Amino acid sequence: MTAAPTAPTLGPVETSVRKAQITLDELWSQTNVETRAYTGNIIALTVRKHLERVQEALAGLEGRYAGRQIIGVMDGTDDLMVHASLVSQRRGAFVERLTIDASTEQLQGAILPLLRPATVNHVWWGSDTKPEGLLMRELTDIADQVIADSLTLDIPPARHYALADLGWSRSASWREALAQVFDSPDAARQLPNVDHLTVRYAGGKDLPARLYAGFVADTLGWKNLENVEFKAARCGRENGDLCGVELSGDGVRFTLAAGEAETVRVESVWDDKKHVTEVNVPTMSLAEGLGRVMARPERGEMFERAWKLAKATL
Amino acid sequence: MTAKRGKKAAEPEKPSKPAPKGATPKKPVTKKVSAAATKGAVKEKAASQKVGVAQAAPKAKTPSKAAARPRKSTGKPGADGQNPFRTTMRRSRAPEPATMVIFGVTGDLSRRKLLPAIFGLWQDGLLGSAFNIVGVGRQEMTDEQFKDYAIKALQESKETDAIQPGSLEKFRELLYYEFGEFGGDEVYELVGKELDRAEEAHGGRKNALFYLSTPPSLFEPISNGLGRLGLSDQSEGWRRLVIEKPFGRDLESARELNAAIHDTWDESQVYRIDHYLGKETVQNLMAIRFGNAIFEPLWNRGYVDHVQITASEDLGLEGRAGYYEEAGIVRDMLQNHLMQLFALTAMEAPAAFDADAIRDEKTKVLRAVKPIPLGRVKEVAVRGQYGAGSMDGVKVPGYREEPDVKPDSRTATYVAVKLEIDNWRWQGVPFFLRTGKRLPKKVTEIAVVFKRAPLGIFPGGLERNVLAFRIQPDEGVSLKFSSKSPGQEMVLREVVMDFRYDAFGAQLESPYSRLLLDALIGDATLFPREDEVDHAWQIVSGILEAWDVRPSKGQTPDFPNYAAGTWGPEEAETLIGEGRRWRRL
Q1: Are strands B414-419 and B431-436 parallel, antiparallel or unpaired?
Q2: Which residues of A fall within a CB distance of 8 Å from B118?
């Protein structure tokens, strides 16, 4: 996969479903790349108003997750249009991108033949309309993973594909930070005293915070989120990210609060002693969040249990 | 070297109140050693020596502080001190709060590799919420001066990850410095106080990773000093010792070093770093061998003709004449890096991907190598020293013309050796290892060369299939096989199917960051164990004796015997034998 280190993106070139592979091969021939690695397909389904954001997220997604990106723009017409390009990546690599603008019915017939065979298929529902109909059914049939905003779209976890939620994925650093607080056995021993949780979230979107609360509650053996408070906050982080978490109870308090840059201040109090540390909680871009779930799906059971607790609060 | 030896038993003592930083202690902190504890420790060590494998670390005592106990029921998550959040994490193991103490922190290795690796781990949020670094050196410096030094090192090193805004300032706050003579007690007392201070600030136990980034001559004094002051004792937190190669300069000194270290440390506390094992593609060798069903059936004397392991360097001495004149290529590369690559290639499948299972298998195959006594050296090993030549179109001097090298130096800069393994899998399959300086290019590769097909039914000769693992650069795996050439005739030609690791599109992590994280977690899988190091020394002992110790026994080398920029001396071609040739890389 070597080529010039700053190779430009090649395309988009207008093509058709039948000629798409030939067009891609022609684009490949313009590069100095000798070998290609087919690491998977990602099928991103979206609508025009979200197209730019989806393209931007996919551009930041490295080829190691999916060597072929197929973007289906669902609010097109029956007059199907296909564009092919090779999107330049770091270190002189490229990923293949096919953008199809069509009606949902047309998309179904167009996407399936374009999938690179015998590899992993990720389906990303990058739209705020509820997925339904034949297209989604066909795609979930061939999907190894469905990535979606699961609480908004009410897509329950299912057995025949791995469900991944970007909000859940992007709060992974916060889950890791909380786990780090209790890597100390002394701190872990205080957990039975915790009976209250506050989650502060950035912007107006509290669904990732609810999933996060579901994770904490389930881990601590709580049956529901009755003892959880959600508070909107401002901390310089993106909408959907968290600003802080506090676990408290009889004589104990563990607070994680977003600080400068990507640091989070951790204050732990038990036995009237206060311990203060700082931990890095990197923010995750949409592309990084996508990369994370595609690299290795989260442990399904944990997410499913958190999802059920969170869903019950809506 | 004169320090008193004696295993410090795990008798807990009352945690002392931390003194203010910089205060002079009244007297050294010592620990009582109970007879029972000593007995236990001796028994444990004896068992370890007997079976030749590492024993489990002594169990850390449960903290005696009543205050640390929860007041509520004990059946709830966390009541047992286990972290219930960690079990659900993708990273199911993470370092507990700890202090990393780097001896020799102002040295080259620390500046170029260690500090950037630690910073990268910290910036990625992998080092936990309570982590400190204490630099220790002989050079007098304040904390502030050390912080400046470390930040500058991070800014200058090519190994440093992209620095996020504000990260350096935050990382700076984790750094502390102590100085003193490594032969005395004071510097270790100060280190002990740093551990007290970290515990006071962060809670948790006084876990510490001691990294000896110093010349080998200081390993023993530092190990002893830490032991004298009770800093190897694990009753208040785990304590681990990381040492850099060379682990001795021959079999005898390696055994002495191991014995000296074991006077203070249990083998399970010792982490010997060979940075080759931290490389992604070295780990990928195990992944490809044991994660796929198609290779293992071929991985034996029935199908493999021979194996070639190459680690070539294009560089010369780069100002390291002092070290290199003493060490030479056998100690610098063959005994450690190449021997590890050899063991990973030739070992049996381990029962599990864990430290002891893997290290047991590596040790077994090293033990099975046919000994190379003095009398066999000429038959199975070739040495070389480069003369003047040309590299990349530039004339370069010979080894003996390098600054600070003796004009009649007999130090070898090239070695090729044939290893034979006396076991069922590899009987009759030679492993050829070669490494040298000023070879045409920098490349490390393991090539498994298969036997020819038993019958040629096509015109032309039959070629051998080769499965090659490129460790560096252009990390990847390739398979060479024959295919029909397009055309009317049935003509076969060799083609190569190539997988390049950069297809993953990810920057490879520094081997040091992987190894440091493993040491902090307590995973010794990628660290050579005492018995591995011992066997590796045994394999090269005859070679060292022939070339270094008894040079007058008709073995005087005709140096220089290869020109810089070539693939080594002619004798290496004879070594590999008829019908085979070294890979042109």
Answers
A1: antiparallel
A2: none
